[in-house]
Amino acid sequence: MTTEAAHTAAKRLPERTIERLSEYRRMLLECLKQGRTHIYSHELASMHGITAVQVRRDLMLIGFSSDTKKGYDVEVLIEFIGTILDSPDGLNVGIIGMGNLAQAVTHYFNGKRSRLQITAAFDIDPAKVGHTVAGVPCYHMDTFVETAVRHNIRVIILTSPSSVAASMVDPITRAGIRGVLNFTSTPLNFPDDIYVEDYDIITLLEKVAYFAKSSDTSSNR
Predict the structure, then answer these.
(1) pLDDT tens digit sequence for 111-126
(2) Model pTM score
(3) In the 3-class helix/strand/coil scheme, how is the chain assigned residue by residue?
(4) Are 24 and 74 within 8 A, CB to CB?
(5) Mean of the pLDDT values across residues 63-72?
């Protein structure tokens, strides 16, 4: 499959498949560090708690095949997944609200992917504006649109307080942002051509706590 064909196929992929491809690549990179050159579908599946059939189906969707006698070539599969997930020219990411969560995300993520980098941060706190975190400069939110355009930022991580989250929709839209990872607990109404992923930590933690409580109740019967 050519790179162009791969990108065409990627546009048709289900969201959950895209998530699994990212998970596969992360684990494959660990395998590569350990010196592994090949891996079977059932081994990759066991690392993610899914079936080998699901792994093969995902890779079939992106047009990847392999010598089943030796398994998948780890390095080749990493590179192929990259043609699906990554932009050929790379994508710049901005982060709004440089609190503890944003700083932790910046420290953790930068350097993990060569074609996806957090290049600018934004805040209104004078103690943060003008400083850098993990090499990322922090600008005042008043300059967001012009700075985002100048840095060619296409994706925003939103970690601002929920009370002001709704006011971020207009500047993000005007800056030509194409994707938003929303860490606030506020649902935001963006235009349909901006992809939004909501990540509500409180809801997710309460979900985990519910099942942990249910597990405790079952074991005590």
Answers:
(1) 788 789 999 999 999 9
(2) 0.81
(3) CCHHHHHHHHCCCCHHHHHHHHHHHHHHHHHHHCCCCEECHHHHHHHHCCCHHHHHHHHHHCCCCCCCCCCEEHHHHHHHHHHHHCCCCCEEEEEECCCHHHHHHHHHHCCCCCCEEEEEEEECCCCCCCCEECCEEEEEHHHHHHHHHHCCEEEEEECCCHHHHHHHHHHHHHCCCCEEEECCCCCCCCCCCCEEEECCHHHHHHHHHHHHHHHHHHHCC
(4) no
(5) 82
